[in-house]
Automatic annotation (TrEMBL):
<dbReference type="InterPro" id="IPR010718">
    <property type="entry name" value="DUF1294"/>
</dbReference>
<protein>
    <submittedName>
        <fullName>Uncharacterized membrane protein YsdA (DUF1294 family)</fullName>
    </submittedName>
</protein>
<keyword id="KW-0812">Transmembrane</keyword>
<feature type="transmembrane region" description="Helical">
    <location>
        <begin position="37"/>
        <end position="58"/>
    </location>
</feature>
<feature type="transmembrane region" description="Helical">
    <location>
        <begin position="70"/>
        <end position="94"/>
    </location>
</feature>
<keyword id="KW-1133">Transmembrane helix</keyword>
<dbReference type="Pfam" id="PF06961">
    <property type="entry name" value="DUF1294"/>
</dbReference>
<keyword id="KW-0472">Membrane</keyword>
<feature type="transmembrane region" description="Helical">
    <location>
        <begin position="6"/>
        <end position="25"/>
    </location>
</feature>
Length: 104
């Protein structure tokens, strides 16, 4: 496994730590009735790979757990991301013929 793999793993760890931290930060701000993190910012972190961190933050801080947009939206984004990874992995490593077709 090359350097690109380690860069990708590092990115996933960092973006999920950010997702977790942003949920804790937003929860503290909510308790103090202060300015909050925009929901679109939280979703953007999820889109860029931070869904696991956000879900862990939702559970740990009991934050955004009553908002259907988050309860269903973040896991759905995660599902789509995992599906895309599975398709890429399958086409590249399991079935090389499919990968060759995609490259054309």
């Amino acid at each position: 496994m090359g350097g690109m793999f380690y860069i990708l793993i590092s990115y996933i760890i960092i973006i999920n730590c950010i997702g977790f931290a942003i949920m804790g930060y937003d929860k503290q701000r909510a308790k103090r009735h202060e300015w909050r993190v925009k929901e679109r910012t939280i979703f953007a972190i999820g889109y860029f790979g931070g869904c696991l961190g956000i879900l862990l933050g939702m559970s740990t801080f009991r934050h955004k757990t009553k908002h259907k947009k988050f309860v269903y939206g973040i896991p759905f984004i995660l599902f789509l991301q995992l599906l895309i990874i599975a398709i890429i992995f399958h086409s590249k490593y399991i079935n090389p013929n499919t990968y060759k077709l995609l490259k054309k």
